[in-house]
Amino acid sequence: MRTALVIGTGLIGTSAALALARRGVVVHLDDHDPEQARTAAALGAGTDKAPDGPVDLAVVAVPPAHVARVLAEAMRGGVARGYLDVASVKGGPRRELESLGLDLTAYIGTHPMSGSEKSGPLAATADLFEGRPWVLTPTQDTDTEVLNLALELVSHCRAVPVVMDADAHDRAVALVSHMPHLVSSMVAARLENAEEAAVRLCGQGIRDVTRIAASDPRMWIDILSANPGPVADLLSEIASDLDETVRALRALQSADEVKRREGSTGIEDVLRRGNAGRARVPGKHGTAPHAYEVVAVLIDDQPGQLARIFADAGMAGINIEDVRIEHATGQQIGLVQLMVEPKAAPVLTAALRERGWSIRQ
Ligand SMILES: NC(=O)C1=CN([C@@H]2O[C@H](COP(=O)(O)OP(=O)(O)OC[C@H]3O[C@@H](n4cnc5c(N)ncnc54)[C@H](O)[C@@H]3O)[C@@H](O)[C@H]2O)C=CC1
Ligand SMILES: O=C(O)C(=O)Cc1ccc(O)cc1
């Protein structure tokens, strides 16, 4: 692929454009808000000038409700050899395109399984998709050349291609993305009117559970509107778990010893089923979850501290597998948790101590 056109230069479009530009592809950037395209260009994602002729691949990265219309316009204008979208739902947009009577041989629906609660080009990074699944939904009508262009994009983004049927994809993301999003919002909503004294105690657990609740509601109304059935089915399963859990907790309040034991069994059941489900969540780069050891470092909340820790770890020859940062409420300090292979933990601890870092046991 030599040239590409990214339409919709928000988080996903700009991240893909940055990855393509880094691999030497000439990227043209287009957005109905020209300021967004200008910002993406300023970040090094390409040029906001229109291409002279058809590009190799058009990447449509606009909110799901606009995907079919934007694709139809691009295809009718003949702006590219191949077309793809990255929307979080796949069945609806395809059916909309079919109903517009377009020839879909040059189109493939795709979905990178990576993103964030942030939106817009300023949140974009070239490595956003690295090691993450990128779903491709070709049909028997999809041109091989177009499938190859999509695979090239996925490879430039260093993502892992996964081929699926569009409706099977939508059922799968209902489980791993859409339902969890609503549950996260519902947990976060409990905090809206909670007392300040309670909210200030928030720790890492509630931060983990509510991170995605900070996402743009307009985008998520679009996503959920395109996949309501599978999400509703899953939420009703959760509702029945909730009913049973409430019953078990009420039983734990009882004065009757037998009832309390039943309550305890009920709670244990949901916790154990949670352990079993969590154990199936793939780790970094889609591999099995890994038991890393944590080295916790206290830092001043100042710019450059993280970069220094990473540089010091690098000098000690340690690969940091994952990182977490916890900020202490109302204080100018934070706790950085570095996840490393167990045998690397004592080496890293010693190396960081030697360089003056305060390690928390
Ligand atoms: N946010 C995430 O984590 C993920 C999002 N997606 C999908 O990627 C797509 C884009 O999402 P984000 O980049 O997060 O959103 P975003 O809000 O960061 O960017 C969307 C961009 O599209 C532009 N836009 C809207 N309507 C347009 C139109 N008619 N023509 C041209 N530009 C238009 C907006 O001005 C904005 O710059 C969505 O379809 C979403 O479902 C896929 C994977 C992850
Ligand atoms: O922020 C996260 O962890 C996400 O899961 C983001 C995300 C949002 C929408 C998608 O279609 C895919 C991924």
TrEMBL record:
Keywords: Amino-acid biosynthesis, Aromatic amino acid biosynthesis, NAD, Oxidoreductase, Tyrosine biosynthesis. Its EC number is 1.3.1.12. Pathway: Amino-acid biosynthesis; L-tyrosine biosynthesis; (4-hydroxyphenyl)pyruvate from prephenate (NAD(+) route): step 1/1. PROSITE patterns: ACT, PDH_ADH. It holds the Pfam family PDH_N. InterPro entries: 6-PGluconate_DH-like_C_sf, ACT-like_dom_sf, ACT_dom, NAD(P)-bd_dom_sf, PDH_C, PDH_N, Preph/Arog_dehydrog, Prephen_DH. It comes from the Bacteria. Residues 2-289 form the Prephenate/arogenate dehydrogenase domain. Residues 294-361 form the ACT domain. It catalyses: prephenate + NAD(+) = 3-(4-hydroxyphenyl)pyruvate + CO2 + NADH. PANTHER family: PREPHENATE DEHYDROGENASE, PREPHENATE DEHYDROGENASE [NADP(+)]. Belongs to the prephenate/arogenate dehydrogenase family. This is Prephenate dehydrogenase. It comes from Streptomyces thermogriseus.
